[in-house]
Predict the structure of Exodeoxyribonuclease 7 large subunit.
Amino acid sequence: MNSDPLSQQAGDAVIPVSALNRAIGSVLERSFPLVWVSGEVSNFTRAASGHWYFSIKDAQAQMRCVMFRGRAQYAEFTPREGDKIEVRALVTMYEPRGELQLNVEAVRRTGQGRLFEAFLRLKAQLESEGLFAAERKRALPAHPRAIGIVTSLQAAAFRDVLTTLCRRAPHIPVIVYPAPVQGAGVSAKLAAMVEAASARREVDVLIVCRGGGSIEDLWAFNEEVLARAIAESAVPVVSGVGHETDFTIADFAADVRAPTPTAAAELVSPQRVMLLRDLDHRHATLARGFGRMMERRAQQLDWLARRLVSPAERLQRQRTHLRQLATRLASAGARPVRDARGRFALVQLRWQRWRPDLNAEREHLMRVAQRLQASQARRHERASARVSELAARLQVLSPRRTLERGYAALIDAQTGRAVRTPGALRPKRPLTVHLAEGTADVLLADVQPRLTDEF
């Protein structure tokens, strides 16, 4: 199915201009994807709304461009008349006037894309070789004896660095290794100065710096020769190139990257005022410690002087001490014997006091034995009388006495219970008959119950 608006018009049908322009715009947007277009800027206008309107041209043609505010606010620079730029745009139709235009999404200076790609390739290559490894980074000296600067003598960054060093550390000498920072063959000259500073060993730290600029202006610091010279330097290198947002290969190769040249000067220079303040504090602390040590030594000397005595006095003290030890030894030898005798006398007295009277105990034991025999005899007599009485009663109540008078006891052989009523008798049911002189098993042939009150 064809979706082209023009194909939907049949034969000689008439269509409005707006429909025609809309159809042309639709065809253009489908036919031309986003492309990079290069040219020279002309007729640049920034509208009050924030949109950019300009044209790009070359020797043979030109094209109108629009960059809306939502895209323009993220552009890294504002194009000026005559600038060589590259725009990433979509070919569209401005329907009200029927004009072709480029709807710009991104803008960059001519050649910047190729330079950035070269930057990324070199960065990846050197990083794979370990040139940017963190373990090879060296710490900056806390108190450098001399500071070196590699930059142009005419650069504004050079004046900023010198001003900062004079303000913070005027006592540290500064050695300048001049080299141009922009132009053809600059990176080799910068690398030569870095190598010269490394070979002379007359500085403890080296600053490689220049002011801000475009990627073309800073390209000398993206060359491999300078990066390798910085990495192989015998002294720590601080890179202070461009502004805070600018990154170069030299920044990655250096031991420390500073956001600006002024910040690089602050990193390598200890502040003289703070050093003097710290020195005063340490001097006061040392003086107080020395004074306290002298006081302790004087006190220890006085104590040792008091302990120092003559040999004769020392011998006399030892004789006195020896006599005291002899007296204590004699007293200590006699005291255990005296204490033992006292404890023995006390135990003997307590034993005599608590010694039992055997005769009295024997008489008491005999009396207790007689009382026990009399008590057992009386208990035996009472128990015998009780047994006789219970035996007589048992004879009277014994079932055998009842059986001897002619009675019999019937026991159901199946249940083991006594038969008490005629209704409990059943024909052919075994019974056990208990008599006075034995038992007999019987089997009833017939039962004729009869109730009587004869007994």
Remarks:
- The radius of gyration is 65 Å.
- The CA atoms of residues 336 and 342 lie 10 Å apart.
- The first helix runs from residue 17 to 31.
